[in-house]
Amino acid sequence: MLQTKRLLLSISVAVAMVSLLVLNSADAARPFEDHAVSCVIDVEVESKNQTGTVIGTEVYHQEFLLQEGEVFSEDFSTRTRFKFFDATFSKLNGDRTISINWFADVTVFNSVDCSTSVVLSDGDKSGKAVGENTVYTSAGSTRTKFTLTCTED
To answer: pLDDT (tens digit, 9 = 90+) per residue, 58-93?
Structure first.
């Protein structure tokens, strides 16, 4: 009876030690844990008529967090206007790429579509993409400015 108890105790200790070894080797196989990337997108669209008077302004600000392979999406449409924001995070050869697409109907006849990305290369912990575009028509102009800032947590 005593030998059976010792044998069971020995087996229990052996199982516990093997379990610890397996868990530690799994952690060792992942020396660099994937980190989240936090980002902020700011978009400003200003529509002017022929005389230069501002007839409409669209402002968008969003803070979001992504893990590799995740997608962040927001539909901020109204009853009369389509408005969407999508962001993705992918990793290739050590580079982490955050890509965004922002779309909004801004006037009766005009819509704006912005796409950009930030690449965090090995060692880079933050990055920024900035852009500006103005479209002129016979009815006026539409100026779009955007900033995407991303930081690895």
So the answer is: 999 999 999 988 999 999 999 999 999 999 999 888
pTM, two decimal places: 0.74
In DSSP terms, 95 is beta-bridged to 92
Q: What is the pLDDT of residues 112-148, one digit of tens each?
A: 999 999 999 877 889 999 999 999 998 899 999 999 9
Rg of the Cα trace of the chain?
Answer: 26
Query: Which is nearest to 85 in space by CA: 74, 98, 77?
Result: 74
DSSP state string for the chain: -HHHHHHHHHHHHHHHHHHHHHHHHHHHT-SS----EEEEEEEEEEEEETTS-EEEEEEEEEEEEE-TT-EEEEE---SS--EEEEEEEEEETTEEEEEEEEEEE-SSS-EEEEEEEEEE-TT--EEEEEEEEEEEETTEEEEEEEEEEEEE-
Start-to-end CA distance of the chain, whole Å, equals 56
Residue ranges per domain, the chain?
Answer: 1-31, 37-152
Burial of 40-68, coded b for 16+ CB within 10 Å and e otherwise, reads: ebebebbbbeeeeeeeeebebebebebee
